[in-house]
Amino acid sequence: MIGLRRRQLTIASCTASMLAALITSPALGYPLDGADDTGILRLEAYRLAQTGKIRGRLLPPGARLPGDTIQLRLSEFPDFAIPAPDAAFGDAIRSLLQDDAAAYGVAVLDLTDPQHPRFAAHNTEMTQNPASVGKLMVALGWFQTLADLYPDDIAARDALMYDTQHSANAFIRSDSHDVPIWHPGDPRIDFRPLREGDRGNLWSWLDWMLSSSSNAAASSVMAELILLKHFGGAYPISPEAAKAFFRDQPKPVLSGLLRETVQKPVTRNGLDLQNLRQGSFFTREGKSRVPGITSMSTPMELLRFMVRMEQGRLVDGYSSLALKRLLYLSERRIRYASSQSLRRAAVYFKSGSWYTCKAESGFQCGKYEGNVRNFLNSVVVVETQPPARKLHYIAIVLSNVLRKNSATIHRNLATEIHSIIEAFHASGGTISETAASTTATPWADPIEEMDGEPDEFDGEPDEFDGEPDEMDGEADEMDSEADELDGQLDELEDELDELEDELDELDSEGNESDSGA
């Protein structure tokens, strides 16, 4: 036991020294600065983790931008319309899909020059259950209902979101998605599923729903949304009154409120409910209390949703910007967003998966590798800024490729799509025939852990005043050193986690022994 603790302290000391070397980077001038405005505690926890003040996940540079850099990029283009598909752009994207092209629906809109946008389309009317991407419609319904209640009073909307505390209740049953739990003074961030009694304000619940993709949080938000719609200015109500409401209301009435709050806002915001809808709750308890219908999405309608967000036309400018901020990925990057090509980019992201398996000779079911269905949906906005080439694009990928690891496929597609768009703008506006093959190992073997790339701490190079060639060389060298430190730090963090698990197990055994005595 003593040996384990001494070894843990030694590793922690090494980790701290590596952190000190990396913290000199100007990248840490980009704080996770939304905690004061929203009351989302994980933002302050993650900010502290970046400076080594508490134990927690280390984020890539693109996840550490200040809040004022998150803007609606098409707000000055209210009449923007998605252009006709660009044949060459579409062919370049389609070539990435190889023999599985029929199992994909892809829409990519390059907005780097919004006056001359480019649109790549492949099977954009493909219909598929949105899975967790449907939480976008829950958020839309929330902001629409909030705006209906306080149409001209942004301060009242903010106050309701910040001041209203909600405790997890039976609607969370059951869900295995972990969320970050932290309170001021905690030495580290705890990741676990939500439990009945867990509390947070409404911003925190929307954050858990979108950033952690918690089904428990989504169903809780949907239940609160129904209450907000029904009680209006009397909301929030007591937990006892809420429990009595859901117990006493006939199920057809509750189903009608679900349609009013989650489905009707889709059509009110100019979108097609037949091609984009969230039909039901996300937990078994929610489905049993409030009956719903099927859910549906297409790449084209999801693209139209994101374009309207960028224009400020989802409800209004306040709501559109609030949603974009909630989608800004300051969490661990997984699936499409885990591409190393995006590590310095701002990524606004929602993903959803649904896979099932059946017995099949020679096939072993794995995560994201279903042989009956293998849905994976990615909705992404990517923004890069100098010193990288400035890019802005929206990518929607729906796939149902059976027996292949869809998380890996989406990650590699992200690398390839980014490469194609980057090459187009680097060449002055032409698509090279080899643009789709400019990255190494485009279809890598599945990695063992499919929740994303290992956690990273990326040190930006210091600024230099030398000649350009000399500056580039030194920056490249520092990038290489930072990447090497990233890897070492990841290994140390993994080892620390293993040691902590061993210590917890030993402590548990000790407690059991004491109890038995």
Summary of the model, kept short:
This protein is α+β, with helices and mostly antiparallel strands. The protein is about 45% helix and about 10% strand. β1 and β2 form a beta hairpin.
Describe the structure.
- With 517 residues, this protein is of the alpha+beta class.
- The chain contains 15 helices and eleven strands.
- It has helices at 2-23, 35-38, 41-50, 87-97, 135-149, 154-163, 202-210, 215-231, 239-248, 251-268, 284-289, 299-311, 317-327, 406-426, 468-516, and strands spanning 104-110, 118-122, 165-167, 178-181, 190-193, 199-201, 276-277, 296-297, 346-356, 373-384, 391-400.
- The strands form four sheets. A five-stranded antiparallel sheet has the order 2-1-11-10-9, sandwiched between helices. A two-stranded antiparallel ribbon has the order 3-6. Strands 4-5 form a two-stranded antiparallel sheet.
- A hairpin with a 7-residue loop joins strand 1 and strand 2 (118-122).
- Helix 4 (87-97) packs antiparallel against helix 14 (406-426) and helix 7 (202-210) packs across helix 8.
- The chain starts with a helix and ends with a helix.
- Mean pLDDT is 82; it is low at 1-31, 433-480 and 503-517.
